[in-house]
Specification:
Elements (H helix, E strand, L loop, with lengths): L15 E5 L8 E5 L10 H16 L5 H9 L1 E2 L2 E2 L6 H16 L13 H5 L10 H6 L4 E4 L2 E4 L4 E3 L11 H10 L8 H16 L10 H15 L5 E3 L10 E12 L3 E12 L4 E12 L7 H22 L6 E6 L2 H8 L7 H12 L4 E5 L7 H6 L4 H5 L29 E7 L13 E7 L4 H15 L4 E4 L3 H17 L3 H6 L2 E4 L10 H17 L6 H15 L5 E2 L9 E2 L1 H6 L19 H20 L21 E4 L11 E9 L5 E7 L5 E5 L3 E3 L1 H9 L4
Parallel strand pairs: 9-12, 12-13, 16-17
Antiparallel strand pairs: 1-2, 3-4, 5-6, 6-7, 7-8, 9-10, 10-11, 14-15, 18-19, 20-21, 20-24, 21-22, 22-23
Helix pairs in contact: 2-3, 6-7, 7-8, 9-11, 14-15, 17-20, 18-20
């Protein structure tokens, strides 16, 4: 094809080469120029393609529009593929395409067909297979765009010649590269080899290093599985054997992911007027997961993105008018991502959700279980008949299709990390310090639903006992849980005492979180610190629960007051001392830790240390009001107990001091104080490095100190 396209005179100097004169080796070397476009030049395919389209443009008025459409849309470089339901139509198209291409000097030859009648109506010199050979051997195989086409059986297959066992990573890559499978017919079994190659990269194996016996054994097992599919083939025609008229054509795309891979597969579902239903394999893709660990929900979203890309390819390339397009996924997380308009996602999720939504106007997103999902084969690297034939339910009526799960709006919570449920309780206890104390309890809930809230509340009262009053904001999950709890308390009569007293659940006004006062301030502060510390890190359930326990212990180690007026006795009373009857908590610290450590306990300890650092910086300033912006309160005075702001303080250790002298500079406002830590230690400190314990000040006010 390239040699039929001439190079303009002015451009031939760019295609010069040296050769022997008259082609005789040993003669003088002369400079020659190409007059037509050669193979190997990067510009040749584009120019040849333009020349072919220009032929159609110049001579299209001499032929039917269908002939021009075939030349424009069915050529892949110099290969032409055309199919038709009618033999006479195909014969006419062949003759007309030959005539149209000849107008530009393109001579079409090497015709193949699964119809003997079509070959008989072509000149013998233009056929790749003789009629005699076709009659003698119906199983004759010809190459078509890299695939093997059995003309008599009309089936497509893949050439598998990988008998040599690879000994290095480079050889393994070469073996995988020999498997040319553009349609993904053997995508699951080929994926297994790619996973083995990725493991070699993950283990740092060099390109030419000899593989270990363990790696060789795994590769041998994989190659034996691949060789079992040497005779594997699929029908070229997607509706082969059915003669009745087609009533509707549906496109069904399945997607799935696992920790090691994700994939998608496409089928066409033909429904005929006689009630016959036929399902045909069209295209499949299977890819290894990135080396960098990604959460399963995100990988499921990546698989859904791959599915929407395949949908765009099918719609663009297949000249079929599908009545409906379905995309099936086995995780409701993806469906919640797509149906959620209430949360602003992070960049990774937002980009993919946006891409899916832009191309889903004509798509029905459906739920399917793992046992009915053929894309599950791709993620496991196991080739089954389900991959090439489709799930069984597609060949049946819609009544037997998988039941769809209902997606509720209340489930639209943060899908990337587990939601933190907070319960701030102020139980009435009889302590010598004061009749009130504040404990902060953190817990983890799977979803932002009333069921999860009830479970969290049940865990709380199981550990801390029954509460008489519970205050919360106006969240929908709390409102629903309140109704469920009240119904259960009345109907089931869990206990006589609990039924009589119940739980007085008080809700702050909608949109009025500030009515929560102290507990809302504490919740907001903890949430802000958690968002900064955790960020986009991935934590397992065990690590997340452990980290929240560390957070809870840190928050409850804050001082409430001191035990006595003795200046040497600065051991404060904290929520932990009332809960555990001891302030001492063992802190695991193994020096510098990295956030992305493979050892999960190190990661948790690092996060706990970071939480303590951020908590110090954000909690202590809250204890000191800015006097010029708020109402005037009393200044620091001798005898006050203050918290010290120190950057290097160990976790859960609060440095307290007593003010022994206040010094003023101008306007009688205190600027720095003299503090006493013990009889031996005293120092001066700037006021901005101190935090007055507002919780203590509130207690003093309630006790009538002011």
């Amino acid at each position: 094809m390239y040699y039929q396209v001439k190079v303009p005179e002015d451009d031939r100097d760019y295609l010069c080469f040296l050769w022997w004169k008259d082609g005789h080796i040993g003669s003088d070397i002369v400079k020659l120029r190409m007059t037509s476009h050669p193979f190997g030049a990067s510009c040749s395919p584009s120019i040849a393609n333009y020349a072919l389209k220009r032929v159609v443009q110049d001579h299209s008025n001499q032929f039917h529009k269908s002939v021009s459409k075939i030349v424009l849309n069915n050529f892949y470089v110099d290969d032409l593929l055309v199919s038709s339901d009618y033999i006479n139509e195909l014969i006419d198209n062949n003759n007309n395409v030959i005539d149209l291409c000849s107008k530009g000097g393109f001579n079409l030859t090497k015709f193949n067909s699964n119809s003997l009648e079509v070959l008989k109506n072509l000149p013998k010199d233009k056929c790749s297979v003789s009629i005699e050979k076709f009659i003698e051997d119906e199983d004759v195989v010809q190459k078509t765009l890299g695939l093997d086409w059995s003309l008599g059986k009309d089936k497509m297959s893949i050439s598998l010649n990988i008998d040599e066992i690879p000994r290095t990573k480079r050889e393994l890559l070469a073996v995988i590269g020999k498997i040319y499978d553009p349609l993904g017919m053997l995508a699951p079994v080929v994926l297994e080899g790619r996973v083995l190659l990725q493991n070699l990269f993950r283990n740092g194996i060099g390109w030419d290093c000899t593989l270990s016996e363990r790696d060789k054994g795994q590769i041998n097992v994989w190659m034996s599985r691949v060789n079992k599919f040497k005779l594997f083939s699929i029908d070229r025609c997607t509706k082969k054997g059915i003669t009745s008229k087609v009533e509707s054509i549906e496109c069904h795309i399945f997607c799935d992911s696992s920790e090691v891979a994700y994939g998608s597969v496409v089928y066409l579902r033909y429904k005929h007027v006689d009630g016959t239903i036929q399902c045909s394999f069209i295209l499949g893709k299977a890819k290894v997961a990135p080396l960098k660990t990604i959460t399963i929900p995100r990988l499921e979203l990546v698989a859904a993105t791959l599915a929407i890309k395949l949908k765009c390819v099918i719609v663009r390339e297949l000249p079929l008018k599908t009545t409906q397009i379905y995309i099936w996924t086995e995780t409701t997380t993806v469906l919640k991502y797509l149906y959620n308009d209430y949360i602003r996602f992070k960049t990774f999720v937002a980009n993919r959700v946006s891409q899916i939504r832009e191309n889903s106007e004509d798509v029905y997103w459906m739920y399917v279980s793992s046992r009915d999902n053929p894309a599950d084969d791709a993620t496991r690297g196991k080739q089954t008949s389900r991959w090439s034939e489709g799930p069984a339910f597609l060949s049946q009526n819609e009544e037997v299709w998988p039941v769809q799960q209902q997606i509720n709006k209340e489930d639209f919570s943060n899908l990337e990390i587990k939601k933190v449920m907070r319960i701030e309780v102020e139980p009435i206890q009889n302590h010598t310090v004061d009749p009130f104390y504040k404990e902060t309890k953190t817990d983890v809930a799977e979803w932002y639903t009333q069921e999860s809230m009830i479970n969290a509340f049940t865990r709380f009262i199981s550990r801390r006992g029954t509460v008489s009053k519970l205050i919360s904001d106006h969240g929908t999950n709390f409102i629903g849980a309140n109704k469920v709890l009240r119904d259960n308390l009345t109907m089931r009569h869990i206990s006589t005492e609990l039924t009589k007293r119940g739980v007085d659940w008080v809700f702050t006004p909608p949109g009025g979180s500030h009515h929560g006062g102290v507990f809302e301030r504490m919740i907001g502060l903890v949430r802000r610190v958690l968002e900064v510390v955790i960020g986009s890190q991935t934590l397992s359930d065990d690590s997340l629960s452990t980290f929240f326990c560390e957070v809870e212990s840190t928050i409850n180690s804050r001082p409430l007051t001191v035990v006595s007026n003795d200046v040497n006795d600065l051991c404060p009373i904290t929520p932990n001392s009332l809960l555990n009857l001891d302030n001492y908590v063992v802190t695991l610290d193994s020096g510098e830790m990295v956030c992305e450590s493979r050892k999960k306990w190190r990661q948790v300890q690092h996060l706990a240390k970071e939480f303590w650092r951020r908590w110090q910086k954000e909690y202590l300033p809250c204890l000191q009001e800015r006097q010029k912006w708020l109402k005037v309160n009393r200044n620091l005075r001798e005898g006050d107990i203050v918290l010290m702001v120190e950057n290097d303080t160990p976790r859960r250790h609060w440095l307290l001091a007593r003010v022994v002298k206040v010094r003023t500079i101008i306007h009688f406002m205190p600027r720095y104080e003299k503090l006493k830590f013990s009889e031996e230690i005293s120092m001066s400190q700037a006021i901005n490095q101190l935090g007055v314990n507002l919780e203590l000040r509130k207690l003093e006010h309630m006790a009538g100190v002011f």
